[in-house]
Design a protein that fits this description.
- It is a multi-pass membrane protein.
- Strands 1, 2, 3, 4, 5 and 6 form a six-stranded antiparallel β-sheet that branches. Strands 7, 8, 9, 10, 11 and 12 form a six-stranded antiparallel β-sheet that branches. A five-stranded mixed β-sheet has the order 14-15-13-18-19, with helices on both faces.
- Among the domains are: 106 residues, Beta-Lactamase; 161 residues, Alpha-Beta Plaits (2-Layer Sandwich).
- The two termini are 72 Å apart.
- The C terminus is likely disordered.
- With 547 residues, the protein is of the alpha+beta class.
- Bound molecules: guanosine-5'-triphosphate.
- The site of guanosine-5'-triphosphate (GTP) has 14 residues, from β13, α11 and α12.
- Guanosine-5'-triphosphate (GTP) binds next to β13, α11 and α12.
């Protein structure tokens, strides 16, 4: 029941409408903000990631080329006589290595058969060993230097990157092969991949697409591990096919990330700079949180402030409704409601007051019509009966009397008959006016029939007062007697009066009947006179009145 009342309340509906607007607005802002911020951030983070990836790729490319150039310089400067003296060759290599120790796992010199002549730093079993089947050795033997493929070293067992260059005789023939081995984990080599961080959770990967291998990775467990099969990570698949640039993708671990790919031209590798979107889009989440917080504040404001103001605005309406209810219940008299403000509520209250005014006026009219004669405006039989009851009640309380004078016009019918009903009405109104002029204010003159009137006189406290009633009857006869001028005709009517007195024990009907009978007596006595009823409480029958 209470819920139904609330749902029907204008206040509740206005607040609900306000809340709906706030919530819809919040939803729209929440999603639009997220959408546009995400788009902008994707662009920004992609550009940033690409810049990182390119910088790292260039750095790695530079280091690789530098190493290859160094190896070529060594090959060009190595005194060929040392090839026949492994001990001195080893010392020469050690000297060079100390000057620039970039080949952390050693510089190896092998003759054209692949036999290792010397190495530094030395690896167990390498010197005197054979590199005959080694692809880097074979390649250099053909006269070309190259950066090899990452692999696990034959003698060192470490993950390394080999580089090989030929050592040529004066006639241009290959006399030996120089191989430089760099540990993938060597300092200042791929550390930007393995230790570089992007934000809190992002990092780098170095991929060799030809080997389908992670050469190095920020996550150590990925280093030298195969790349995911195609179909797992769409952006990785594109990168393997040669795409360079940035995009949003989901990696093999199911983590969505913004990734950028840049080439390492010297090896055909590529660097991936990756940042999980959970971190990249953190500002989006923060903005969404702000929107949610704002919305909660807006909801609180709508509930509090708007609720307060709407309540205030509708307050006069509530008060007016309560007043109207109490008037309807009869607890308050009907009265215009106070118009507090000049707004819609005031307009409604004013309209209500106008309606109330009309209602009250028609109620007064109805009341008047129910108690008055329409033609003369005099009280009718109903109101007379009431006044008669009141008069007798007062007589009981004050030990006084009342007198009823029953008046019947003489010779009225001929006016109707000769001049018409309208003339008769005029005569009745004129006679009423003359009789009214004779009365005291406390007397009641009522029209009780066609040409019959009753004059009620109350509070007759003394014998003189009672004697005054006959005097009043005489004045009535005199007042009616002068000729009437109706529609250019001079007409005469008279009046016969029957007087009956009433005291404490009398009932209204018997007093009226007594007066009526007395009036007939007056008619019989020749009209134009009054007679006093004997049956009712005439002053003669009762105890003498004081005075
Ligand atoms: N014009 C008019 N006539 C009315 C009205 N009510 C009653 N009458 C008429 O008043 C007349 C009353 O009749 P009577 O009392 O016999 O008339 P009267 O000539 O005074 O006769 P007496 O009383 O015997 O002297 C009737 O003709 C009614 O039709 C009214 O409201 N207007």
């Amino acid at each position: 029941m209470t819920l139904k009342r609330v749902s029907q309340s204008l206040l509740a509906r206005l607040i609900a409408f306000g809340l709906l607007l706030v919530i819809l607005g919040s939803f729209a802002r929440y999603y639009l903000l997220a959408k546009y911020l995400r788009e902008d951030l994707t662009q920004l983070v992609s550009a940033q990631q690409l810049a990182y990836a390119e910088a790292v790729a260039q750095d790695i490319d530079f280091k690789l080329r530098e190493r290859l150039r160094l190896l070529q310089r060594l090959a060009a400067t190595l005194p060929q006589t040392l090839l026949d003296d492994p001990e001195r060759l080893g010392a020469w290599l050690a000297e060079r290595h100390k000057l620039n120790p970039v080949f952390s796992l050693g510089i190896v010199v092998a003759d054209t058969r692949g036999t290792v002549l010397a190495d530094y730093p030395a690896a167990p079993g390498r010197s005197g060993g054979s590199l005959a089947g080694d692809p880097d050795f074979t390649h250099a033997l053909k006269g070309e230097g190259r950066i090899g493929r990452p692999k696990t070293g034959l003698f060192t067992g470490a993950r390394l990157l080999p580089m090989s260059v030929p050592l040529r005789a004066r006639d241009g023939s290959v006399r030996a092969v120089l191989i430089g081995l760099t540990a993938l984990a060597a300092p200042d080599f791929l550390d930007r991949i393995s230790h570089g961080r992007i934000g809190e959770s992002g990092g780098f990967l170095l991929v060799s697409p030809a080997d389908r291998l992670f050469v190095a990775a920020g996550r150590p467990e990925l280093a030298m591990k195969p790349t995911p099969p195609s179909g797992v990570n769409p952006l990785h698949d594109k990168a393997m096919d040669g795409f360079r640039g940035a995009g949003v993708t989901t990696n093999a671990q199911g983590v969505e990330e913004v990734s950028a790919i840049a080439s390492v031209p010297s090896t055909g590798w590529f660097v991936v700079a990756r940042l999980p979107t959970a971190e990249a889009y953190a500002p989006v989440r923060r903005a969404q949180e702000v929107v949610i917080r704002q919305s909660m504040i807006a909801v609180a404001l709508v509930l509090g402030v708007a609720g307060f103001f709407i309540r205030r605005m509708l307050g006069p309406l509530h008060r007016a409704a309560r007043l109207a209810e109490r008037m309807t219940a009869g607890e308050l008299p009907l009265a215009p409601l106070p118009v507090v403000r000049d707004d819609e509520v005031g307009l409604l209250t004013r309209a209500f007051n106008q309606l109330l005014g009309k209602l009250t006026a028609s109620q007064v009219d109805l009341q008047r019509m129910a108690h008055h004669d329409e033609l003369t405006g005099l009280p009718n039989r109903v109101l007379l009966a009431d006044r008669l009851r009141q008069g007798l009640a007062r007589a009981r309380r004050k030990d006084s009397r009342i007198a009823a004078l029953y008046l019947d016009l003489d010779g009225f019918k001929p006016i109707n008959d000769s001049l018409g009903h309208e003339a008769g009405d005029i005569a009745l109104r004129d006679v009423s006016a003359r009789l009214r002029a004779v009365l005291r204010q406390s007397d009641t003159l009522a029209r009780v029939g066609g040409d019959e009137f009753v004059l009620l006189v109350t509070d007759l406290a003394s014998r003189e007062d009672c004697a005054g009633v006959t005097e009043l009857a005489r004045r009535c006869i005199e007042a009616v007697a002068p000729p009437l001028s109706i529609k250019g005709h001079t007409l005469r009517v008279g009046v016969s009066i029957g007087i009956a007195f009433g005291a404490a024990h009398d009932d209204p009907e018997s007093v009226l009947m007594a007066a009526d009978h007395a009036m007939y007596e007056a008619k019989k006595a020749g009209r134009g006179c009054y007679r006093i009823a004997e049956a009712a409480s005439s002053p003669a029958d009762t105890e003498p009145l004081p005075g």
